[in-house]
Structure formats: C-alpha cells, structure tokens
Amino acid sequence: MNLIPRHLSLRARLISLVVLLITAFALFFLLFFPARMDDQARHLMLGRAMGLTRLLASATEPALDFGDPAYGKRHLETLDSIPEAVFALLLREDGTPLSTWHPERAPKEPLEARQGAFIHGQEVISRVDIHTRGGQQGTLLLGFSLAEMQRESRRNQQLAALISALIIGIGMLAASALGTLLVQPLKRVTRVALRISEGDLGARGELDLSRRDETGTLAAALSRMLDRLYEQRALIESQVRELRSTQEQLIVADRRTSVGTLAAGVAHEINNPLAYVTANLQFALRELPQLKRLAREGTPDTPSTQEEEDWEEVLNALSEAREGCARVQHIVQSLKSFSRGDEDKREPTDLGHTLETAINMAGNEIRHRARLVRDYQHVPPVEANEVRLAQVFLNLLINAAHAIEPGAADQNEIRISTHLGEDGRVRVAITDTGSGMTPEVRGRLFTPFFTTKPVGVGTGLGLSVCEGIVTSLGGTIEVQSEPGEGSTFTVVLPPCTTAAHDGADEPAAPLPRAKRSRILVVDDEPLVGAALRRALGREHEVFVTTGAREALTRMRQGPPFDVILCDLMMPEMTGMELYTELQRTNPEQARRVLFLSGGAFTETTRAFLELHQERAMGKPIDMDTLRERLRVLLEGHEPPSSHPVMS
C-alpha cells in the first residue's frame, strides 16, 4: 500500500516522507525509552532489595542464633533511613516472627515461598533464608514500595512524549522548507537517524552539524536528543556504582565485627593450653633446685663442671620457655583488648603501655620492612580509652609500614617518639622513611573512604576513624610529608589531670604459706587440672574433675571442699551455672569458688565477670598469685578486689 500518492509533487512527497519518518522515529522513542527505563528501574529495585535483604540477614543472624528479638529489631530499625522500605519480618524456622518492623504493612495473604526478590502488587518483596552458625534456621522478609519507581516511570513517559513532540514539530518545520536540492542531504540524515534508532550510537559522528539549513537543524535536534540519552545512562551507571560501593562498605563493616568476635574466641582457646604450659613451667622451675640438691646428696664426689653446666642449661631452657609463654600471653591479651566492644570508658592511660600494645599487634607488618626505633621521653598519662587509643597507634604504625616496600628492613626506619610540647600537651610522633605523599593526597587523608591502597587492601576508613577518636579526646593529628621523604604523623593529646596508679614499683612482700586444705579443680581441659594438681599437690589435697555436673555430684556425696577452682566456659554446664546451683543448694560451698577465665567473649560472660570480678582470675595462671588468693580465702577473708578480671 502506497501511503504517498504518486500525483503529488516531489517536494510534497519529500515533506510527506520526512514527516512520516520523523513521526515513526518519535513513536519508536516514545515506546522504547519509557519501557527501557522502566525495565532498568525494576531490575535495579529488585537487585537493591535483594542486596539490602542479604546484608540485614547477615546482621540479624546472631539475633536468630541466640533468640534475641531486641537485637534483631535494632538492625531492622535501620530501614527507617530507606524511604522505600515498607516492612520487615525476621521469622523463626516455624514461621513465627522473632523481630518485626512495621508488621502491619505486610501483605495479609500468603507469599511465595521461593527465595529472592519479586514484585507483589505495588511492592517488591525480597526473601532470604538464614542458616546460622549455631544451627538455627529462619527467614528474613523485606518489603519495598514501588511508588517512587512508578512516579519516575510517569516522569519518563512525560519526558519521552515531550521529546517525541519536539522531534515531530522540528521535523515538520524542517520538511516544509525543504526543496529539491535538499533531497540528498535529507536522505543522509534519515539514514543516520535510522541507524541510531537501531542502536548504532557511533553513527552520530556522521551528522553534519555545521550546516545552517533545515538539514543541519534536524541533525542538531537529533544530537541533543542523544545527549539527553547519554546523560540518563551516565546517571543510572553512577547510581549503580554508588549502591555497589555502599554494599561493599557494609560488608566490610560486618566482616570486621565478625573478626572481632572470632579474635576473642581464638584468644580464649589459646589461653587454655597456655595455662597448663605456664603452670608446668613454674612447677618445674620451682622443683628444679630441690632436684639438684637431691642429686648431689646421692653423689659423694664433687660435681664436675660439665654437670654444673648441664644443670644451668636446663634451668636456662625452662626460663626461656617461661619468657616465651609470657610473650604469648601478652599477644593474647592485646588480641582480647582489640576484640572488646566500643564502650567509651576513659581512664588515666599510660602511653608507653598503649604504644607497646600497638607495636605488639603490628610487629609482623613492621619487621620485614623497617627497623623500629623507640625514642620515649617521660610524659604524663592522658585521659583516654586505652583500646581506642591503641587502635589509633596501630593504624598509624600499619600505614607507616605499608609506605615502605618489603625486603630492605636494614635500610628503612620507623621511629616512635614521645615528648611533652611547649604548650603542655603530650605529643606522640610516628615517622617513617617511606614514599611520602603529594599535597593532593595530604589534603584528602582524613576523608572517609579515600584510600591510596589497591582494591581489597584498604577501605579508606582507618584515618578518618583515627581522627574521630583523637578529636573526641580533645586532641589533634598533625601530618608532615613530602614525596620521597617519608611521613610523620603526630598525635597531640591533653595530659590527664589525675595520676594513673601503677603498683609495679611497690616491693613484693614474701608470701606466707597457706594451711593444707581440700581443693577441687573443675575444668573441661584435663591438662589444666593436671597442671594445678601437680603445682599445688605438695601443699594441699587436690581433686580434679572435667565437668560441672561431676563436681556437683562429688560435693553432694563427699566432705566439703575448702576451695573450688572452677573454669568459667565449659560444655554442657558452665561455671556460671554451677555457681548459681551452689548458691541455691549449698551457699557455703558457693562462697569458696574462685573462677579461672580464659577470656569472656559473650555479653553474658562479661556481665557475670563484672558482677563477680573479686573472685575471678585470668588464664594463664601465675602460681604465686594463686597461692596468695588461696591463703586469703582459707583465712576467712573475702577475695581482694584488687585482682582485675582478665576478660
């Protein structure tokens, strides 16, 4: 069917042809552009909903594991910051809700049981099944409104209609002024328009925008339309990148929380074998001189020089092993400190001890890159949270190490210096001989998420967090750096107005010997019980059990014990539950309990130790300290509160 009658003039036929082509293109754009934008918007909405649901599922997993509705609700309430969020349901395995957020907005009819994100009416529903480490199962349902997406769809349709109308109008005006001489240029523009409509965006370069006639006007209009399309595509791509960046940052934050919990558990597990190794070493060092005397009594001849050297070598080996255990204990204590929560408890803090804690944690990063030089001057303590302040120094030390390429440790240096400034403020400077920084990098150092490290190595949060911690303490961080000349970060803090108590210089009085008594050791680690029985067996009558229930049976059937040394974390029945049962059934024996803790890595354990810290000792156990605690308890006094809990 011929839409253009043959009896019309060539100009009229040309005008009719141009109008038809422009109208067809405008209609194609009107149909394709809103549909394409709607499809992309739905895809992004479903992806975003699923990503947020997975993140919240990971964050609320502990709530499902421990059956803690309040913990889950706190995480679900973060949806208040997301305008599209409608409701959230954290369901147990049986389908009953554990925690909810606006449950009244949830659909009343049953939803599909499949996992993923799907559109249900005017909402996007996303569902993620949760399988916790503790073996619990559940489901997280989130609902998001499509209202904003529908409004954006209507705006896109209006924009497409406006652009289509503009194209048709310009086409009709241009076609009315065309003549016979413009037939060929018009065909060229038409061919370019058709190629672009088919997705060949490279054809835009063939448009002759220098012409001043109708053909040039049409080409310019087409170019402006493509500019708008490019802008919309760039905007969508930018929003996708922002969503991905936010998702990665939330994943990193969740991973750090998990690593902190894991570190506390690892420290607890290390402390158990460290406890019996340390106790056995102290026992061997205590018994070795007596064994030496007994060996000499059985030999009438004067011992040879070689025998004396052998005895001395054994003693040195045991002493070195004990020093190694002390070093491991220090590392574990640092690890436990960094795994604690973010409570902002401030107290007079000794910077030397805090710096050594950070050095101990960063030692492996430093030793392969540079020599560590300590240049400490006497400075007063500062009012701070020691864990947070150690986090600042640890981050600065790791950054200093990463500024130096590994493999030339003897040619590079990281220097830590402390001194009191002229303004009376304490200054801690960390200087490296690394690559230094340009002024542009220095200007953005404390900007959140800015990092010069490769992808996957740095998050750009370390220095911004450090600045926030130091600023909250009333201090500042000063930076000096030039490319190729290294960097110096100086933490400036106000001195503490109250002195920190340090009892390290007080002379230790000789320990009187406690009277012989019956002692029950309750620890699920058999070697810990064996070590304590070996160390205390000559002074007391020591009984060992590996379970709390067995200990309860022994206490019910036999005579009472003078002291009960009880581990805190045990399977089946914990030391806390044993103590509670004794308070109920045998209060006198409950008053004889001393707890041995390898570390508290749950909120319940921390709360219990805070309540009973006067009767707790940390693993590994110093035997002299334990003997003093036994003596005080056997003399009828309450355990002294000066022994802190090692949590």
The number of E-state strands comes to 17
Specify Rg, calculated over alpha carbons.
Answer: 37 Å
For the largest beta-sheet, the strand count, sense and barrel status come to: 5 strands, antiparallel
Kindly state the mean pLDDT as a whole number?
A: 79
What separation lies between the terminal Cα atoms? 89 Å
Global geometry? elongated
Q: In percent, how much strand structure appears in the residues?
A: 15-25%
Give me the side-by-side strand order of the main sheet: 2-1-5-4-3
The computed structural class is alpha/beta
Query: Could you name the ranges where pLDDT drops below 50 across 5 or more consecutive residues?
Result: 455-460, 500-508, 640-647
**Number of H- or I-type helical stretches:** 16
In helices, the fraction of residues equals 40-55%
Walk me through the structure.
By secondary structure, the chain is an alpha/beta fold. Helix content is 52%, strand content 15%. The chain is built from 16 helices and 17 strands. The strands form 4 sheets. The protein has a 5-stranded antiparallel β-sheet. It has a 5-stranded mixed β-sheet with strand order 7-9-10-12-11, with helices on one face. A hairpin with a 5-residue loop joins strand 9 and strand 10.
Topology, element by element:
Blueprint: H1 10-66, H2 69-76, E1 85-92, E2 97-101, E3 116-120, E4 123-131, E5 137-145, H3 147-176, H4 183-197, H5 214-297, H6 305-338, E6 347-349, H7 351-367, E7 371-376, E8 382-384, H8 386-402, E9 413-420, E10 426-432, H9 439-443, H10 462-472, E11 476-481, E12 487-493, E13 518-522, H11 526-536, E14 541-545, H12 548-557, E15 563-567, H13 575-585, H14 587-590, E16 593-597, H15 603-611, E17 616-618, H16 623-634
Parallel strand pairs: 7-9, 13-14, 13-15, 15-16, 16-17
Antiparallel strand pairs: 1-2, 1-5, 3-4, 4-5, 6-8, 9-10, 10-12, 11-12
Helix pairs in contact: 1-2, 1-3, 1-4, 1-5, 3-5, 4-5, 5-6, 5-11, 6-7, 7-8, 8-10
